[in-house]
Amino acid sequence: MPTKSEQQQSGLMLHRSRQLLVRQRTMLSNAIRGHLAELGIISAKGRNGTAELFKIIADEKDGRIPAAARFSLDVLARQHAAIAAEIGAIEKRIHAWHRSSEESRRLEQIPGVGPIVATALVSEVGDWKEFSSGRSLAAWIGLVPKQHSTGGKNRLGRISKQGNRYLRWLLVTGAMAVIRYARQHGTRRLWLAHIMERRPIKVSAVALANKIARMAWAMMVRGEPFKEPRLLPAA
Fold first, then answer.
1. How much of the chain is in helix, strand and coil states, percent to nearest 5?
2. Burial class (CB in 10 A: 0-12, 13-18, 19+), 60
3. Alpha-carbon distance values, 122 to 15, 36, 156 (Å)
4. Phi, psi of 151 (to 5 degrees)
């Protein structure tokens, strides 16, 4: 990969800092859930469930939590809130950079690509023309299955852990959001509708993430805006 510019390196530092803090926030959430589970207090998964646990910790009238345990849990809850605030500050910087970057705004036109994913692509990839094709970019990210060739036959295996894990995680997360929306509201995108019929949701998400990477490469190399693929006819 070519040497990154100062702006790209600065953007990459924002993303790496955010990634580190998100991991720490997740560790704190898991620790709080585990400690309260030992006391018989179980909550739903996700942010709403975590918010309910914080209310329980803050309620000193709740007799289910001993005083010593509440002190420890309150320390973890305050640390969680502090990290969440820092993540929010970093994301504001990322959004500001996104608004000032023509490349990032163009990438946001792709379904499943928001400011976080778009700025991460701009920071990580750098010179898009260094890749000979969209498939080369997808392979560098780690969205191409392993190939096993024998006797003149090519067999595709699983997605390996090699490549750019951060970009792969962001692209698959964005693809999952597109697929969840399509399952609830339907989709007129022909390719996506077909693959959702044939494959499990996680396999479909990786395939869609691969397609998103290829579309991003084509848009950036050719300097074109996003073009909606062939759609299914209206019902």
1. 70, 5, 25
2. exposed
3. 11, 41, 29
4. 60, 30
CA–CA separation, 65 and 71 (whole Å): 10
> From CA 2, how far away is CA 96, in angstroms rounded?
25
Digit-coded pLDDT (tens) for 147-196 = 545 555 545 445 666 788 999 999 999 999 999 999 888 888 888 888 88
This prediction's pTM = 0.82
Tokens of 219: 């848009």
Q: Is the dihedral of CA 104, 216, 229, 161 positive or negative?
A: negative
* Three-state secondary structure call for residue 154: strand
Closest CA to 36 of 22, 48, 49, 25: 49
Q: Residue 167: name the closest of 146, 186, 145, 141 by CA.
A: 141
Number of Cβ atoms within 10 Å of the Cβ of 119: 26
- How far is residue 62 CA from its own chain's centroid? 37
